[in-house]
Amino acid sequence: MRLRIDQRLFEDDSYVEQSKYLAFGISRKAWGGEPMINFISCRGDYHAISYSHLYGVKFNPSLGITIELSDHVVLVRGRGLASSYEKLVMQRVVFIVEADRSTAALIPDDEPVVTELLIEQKHEKSPDFKRMMEETP
Questions:
Q1: Distance of CA 40 to the CA centre of its chain
Q2: How much is the pTM?
Q3: Contact of 137 with 121, CB cutoff 8 Å
Q4: pLDDT by residue (tens digit) across 49-98?
């Protein structure tokens, strides 16, 4: 007998405030990609950017994900990011949510969690962004 895993447990394509924390929202579409990706900070700020602006994605398990867009660079730090990186490359990620410290501490080790999310315009870089870029290979 083969164990069947319900993929709906791992894929959710809408963000609902006050619900169980999800680091990444994954589109249920198998093909075609999503038009935009919504970045949500732990402070509740939203910033959606079109996938048509995506130029590259880098992943280093110890440093996180770097998303290069036409006018922005997004740095995503956390743990358990590998499978979400793969979905991001296939343009199936519809949102990325940064957890606050108390939420991040409650997330089991086998689930992804975003502990730091920085979005910067390419021509304006904050000191925090410069520090994170220096740490990224």
A1: 9
A2: 0.74
A3: no
A4: 999 999 999 999 999 999 999 999 999 999 999 999 998 988 889 999 99
